[in-house]
Amino acid sequence: MEVLANGRVLTDAGFVADRVVLIDGERIVAVTAADDPRCASARRHDLDGLMLLPGFVDSQVNGGGGALFNDDPSVATIRTIGEAHRRFGTTAFLPTLISEDFTVIARAIRAVRTAIEERVPGVIGVHIEGPFINEPRKGAHDPAKIRDLDVRDVALLSSLEVGKTLVTLAPEMTTPATIRLLANEGVVISAGHTNGTFDEVTRALKSGVTGITHLFNAMSPFTHREPGAVGAALYDPDCWCGIIVDGRHVHPAALRIALACKRADRFMLVTDAMPNVGTNQDSFMLQGRKIMVKDGVCVDENGTLEGDVTIEYTGHLAFDRKENDDDDSPAQREETLRNSLKERMSTAEISEIKIENVTDPIKPYIYSYRVRVPGYAQRTGKRIFLQPGFFEHGREALFSASERKHPIYFHYPWSEEDLVTIELPAGFTLDNADAPAPFAASPISEYRPTIGVTKDGHTLLYKRNFFFGGGGNILFPVGSYVPLKKYFDMVHQSDNHTLTLKQAAATAVTP
């Protein structure tokens, strides 16, 4: 036997310093006192005060060590991923394949079967995440791969024979009978990338679904009138919940709420890790798209903008928004927001919409969403032309007529502050950081945009401050129309300011 001694051992009571761990081969025999008689004849390993805790079991691992399972579903890829994650304490994992074609799924399952038979360290099964999901909640999955689950898929998904097979699907996209059929074949089923209602997901949990994939992310949210997939997962005491606890995928407060709803042993920490784990890579390719490993908003080398947006309204603007939305259902509010964006950017893909405080008369009106806009920026040769003012993109000028017959009345004064951070594509630099010149009609209005780049040259910072109605000036006579129109035309022109990104000759983007 062997003994791991002089370490801080994690137990149910927390870390303790007066315990040792006895090991016999691949098995832990006991966590016991240092003077246990069995320790006398055991080979001793001094941990020098380090922490000793169980190995991490990760059920959602897309890649690591520069390798992505989707790119090459092979034993070699599985081995590379396992080695990369083992450095960080992962001792068991499920290589995860996101939405793919039937033949690629078959290759992935064969590779995992062989890896287990060859005793590749760590691999204990496979996670097939999609393609049986709901497109509005697709996240990073390729929509062209999404399809319905049929009998042939059931046979394939139950063919591993060794280890465990976990399948993520959207239960509203199949039937309870098909779910039961798959579960009866020994497949572990999790609901994810789902837009299912509370009732639909609850029904699935009674039909063979036993868990939820990355709780809160890529699923119908919890609201007071429709608890959605989140509500169903937290309401069912036996539902297992995978969750990404990195401070970004799930807000700390949401995490604490979830932990208060269910017992702790029904949560599973997952990483949803990508190829950059264990490397210095700041980007990778995912199903033909370049993904930048950065915070904030990303623009890929083909001009696609992708990121998270949060907008907060206060004062009169908040009141108007709440009044307009009060009679609408959550689904109608989401659809209104989605349509308003698509009217200006027809290719926009909007997901994870959250609208807050609609019925609260005091708190600000807030909405947030994730957006992806293919073709937002235009690429010509080695240059990309980009409009940094995302919030005003596609809007028309406020006044279009050349003259007016009636006074001009604004309902109330208002102010706006936009902050956009854009991660520049790899290999591209900003030709210049010139912003439109600020201007004002004091004390009624001021428009002040600023543009900058972080010291490392990787991130563009765009800030826009604008107010109108200072001094209570909101009613203007007909004779003021021409100068008012000229002023707002200047605002519109500045909002549409375009920057140029240039590809450096020595650092061309990898295809």
Mean pLDDT: 88
Using the CA coordinates, give the radius of gyration.
Answer: 27 Å
Class inferred from helices and paired strands = alpha/beta
Which sequence of strands runs across the widest sheet?
8-11-12-13-14-15-16-17
User: Helix count, per DSSP?
Assistant: 10
Which range does the strand content fall in? 25-35%
Mind describing the biggest β-sheet? 8 strands, parallel
Which descriptor suits the 3D outline?
elongated
Percent in helix: 10-25%
How widely separated are the two ends? 53 Å
Count of distinct strands: 33
Low-confidence stretches: 294-299, 506-511
Please characterize this protein's 3D structure:
With 511 residues, the chain is of the alpha/beta class. Helices cover 22% and strands 32% of the residues. The chain has ten helices and 33 strands. The strands form eight sheets. An eight-stranded parallel β-sheet has the order 8-11-12-13-14-15-16-17, with helices on one face. Strand 14 (188-191), helix 5 (198-205) and strand 15 form a beta-alpha-beta unit. The protein is elongated. 33% of the residues are buried.
Q: What does this entry show, briefly?
A:
The chain is α/β, with parallel strands linked by helices and about 500 residues long. The chain is built from ten helices and 33 strands. The longest helix is centred in the N-terminal third of the chain and has 16 residues.
